[in-house]
């Protein structure tokens, strides 16, 4: 890479790190930049995953207080997303490029709309059932399976995976949006770490790109977490929905 390209990738890593810890659509920024620089699609996807892994780790550090408030759910999210990402990483290497390109935009659209209406649906369901908040009991089987599927998607490609995870947690647990966002960041971190280990062993990686992206994303991830935990729930929810709609428009 030329010095200008290095600077561009570094800035992209920072921006993607911020997005990863706030609205969860980091790859929508970083992946197109790598393609524009001439990196082949699969190599770009792999290098992007490695480059954004530090963002998830530093973002989780920034959300440590929120994660400590729900240790049982955090542990479940960590394990399920890590296991799911193994399958997703293997799918990326085994399937033809773009095999899910027709399904993913509509899945992102559905989940971002669910994030938008979740408070009203949850309140309605609670009034009808009168049940105790799910967060006191941990995640149920259906939510655990859904979290595993999100982890698999995170390992495969990941654009919009954060929006999906917020929707899953919104309906599967009675959590503050700020806490759900922290758990989403942890999920993406777990998925990226495990997928990166798989890629290091068996995939082609553009190491200069991955390392430069990582240097920017590790700072952006922490900054994004500090911003995200201070945003009002309504504003954060609106930003997540807007990001999901943007992802749909760009991918459809």
Name a few traits of the molecule.
cell membrane; about 0% strand; TSUP; about 250 residues; membrane; TM_pro_TauE-like; mainly alpha; transport
Question: How is the topology of this model organized?
Answer:
Layout: H1 3-22, H2 27-36, H3 41-62, H4 64-68, H5 71-94, H6 104-129, H7 141-156, H8 161-172, H9 177-202, H10 207-228, H11 233-251
Number of domains: 1
Strand count: 0
What class would the helix/strand composition place it in? mainly alpha
Q: What is the overall shape?
A: globular
Percent strand: under 5%
Provide a count of the helices.
11
Helix content class? over 70%
**What is the gyration radius calculated from CA atoms?**
17 Å
Our measurement of the CA-to-CA distance between the termini, rounded to an integer number of angstroms, reads 30 Å
The ordered H/E elements are: HHHHHHHHHHH
Uncertain spans, ≥5 residues at pLDDT below 50? 132-136
Q: If you average the pLDDT, what whole number results?
A: 83
**Main beta sheet:** none
Overview in brief:
The chain is an all-alpha fold. Helix content is 80%, strand content 0%. The protein has one domain.
Question: Would you give an account of this structure?
Answer:
There is one protein chain. With 252 residues, the protein is mainly α. The protein has one domain. It is 80% helix and 0% strand. It has 11 helices and no strands. The protein has helices spanning 3-22, 27-36, 41-62, 64-68, 71-94, 104-129, 141-156, 161-172, 177-202, 207-228, 233-251. Helix 1 (3-22) runs parallel beside helix 10 and helix 2 runs antiparallel to helix 3 (41-62). The longest helix has 26 residues, at 104-129. The protein is globular and about 60 Å long. Residues 132-136 have low confidence and may be disordered.
